[in-house]
Amino acid sequence: MNTYKLEKIIEEFENKCVEWNNKYDNLFFVFNNDLKKLKKEDVKYILIGDNPGNIEADKKKYLVGPAGISARIFFERYFVNNFTKEILVLNKTPIYTNVTDGLKKIDELILQETQKYIVLVITMLYKLLKKPVIISGFAGCHKPKGGFLNEKSKNENAVGKFFFSELKKNDFGTGNMDLFIIKHFSRMSIFDDFTIKIYDDYVKNINYNILEAIGKQYREELFS
């Protein structure tokens, strides 16, 4: 896979989805057509969701369902002017399911193949764009007392364990300062960690780093 041209990385991802659709004809692998409209100079963030749902599969775009609406409102409130143009959106896997829990029924070898490939795409995009990477949602991998499950875990809910295991093998800036892990946008879960102090600090100081405030904790847990 090429590491120096955005269009080439996107093209190879699209071709990979076609390959998977031909290889695993009982599954549906959704490519995000919005990726082909992006310009390198416009991208400000790389955002990773869980996997495509019904609306995403129908429109061939990511984060266009209810969770996507929340994501767009959030990012356009605090970070960008135009979500579609300035946010590069991927998922931990392009496998379509009605709900994320549906991934439990997918062969683990296929999950592993797709999630590790997506991490490869993410790392190359990061090297090319040098923009913050934001992981939205834990995909069943965050333990109640802290920390993340790895790919050897037998927890049936850990549908993202291959993704997070592979992710932590890579570097995203000094001390991984360009990687942020936040709760998912579905049911506005992200705001569980969004305190009034964080909001007040943002209002008082326009340079206040909201992502650092809400995304640092889980990043440190992943790499600890």
Describe this structure in words.
By secondary structure, this protein is an alpha/beta fold. The chain has one domain (6-223): Uracil-DNA Glycosylase, subunit E. It has eight helices and four strands. It has helices at 6-23, 54-59, 66-78, 83-86, 108-129, 161-167, 196-204, 210-223; strands at residues 45-49, 87-91, 133-136, 179-182. A four-stranded parallel β-sheet has the order 2-1-3-4. Strand 3, helix 6 (161-167) and strand 4 form a beta-alpha-beta unit. Helix 5 runs parallel beside helix 6 (161-167). The longest helix has 22 residues, at 108-129. The chain is globular. It starts with 5 loop residues before the first helix and ends with a helix. The model has no long low-confidence stretch (mean pLDDT 93).
The CA-CA distance between the termini, in Å, is: 30 Å
Mean pLDDT level: 93
Tell me the helix content. 40-55%
Quaternary state, please?
A: single chain
The domain count comes to: 1
List low-pLDDT spans: none
Strand content: 5-15%
Task: Annotate the secondary structure layout.
Layout: H1 6-23, E1 45-49, H2 54-59, H3 66-78, H4 83-86, E2 87-91, H5 108-129, E3 133-136, H6 161-167, E4 179-182, H7 196-204, H8 210-223
Parallel strand pairs: 1-2, 1-3, 3-4
Helix pairs in contact: 5-6
Task: Name its key features.
single chain; 224 residues; alpha/beta; Uracil-DNA Glycosylase, subunit E; four-stranded parallel sheet; 8 helices; 4 strands; 8% strand; globular
Concise summary:
With 224 residues, the chain is of the alpha/beta class. Helices cover 42% and strands 8% of the residues. The protein has one domain (6-223): Uracil-DNA Glycosylase, subunit E.
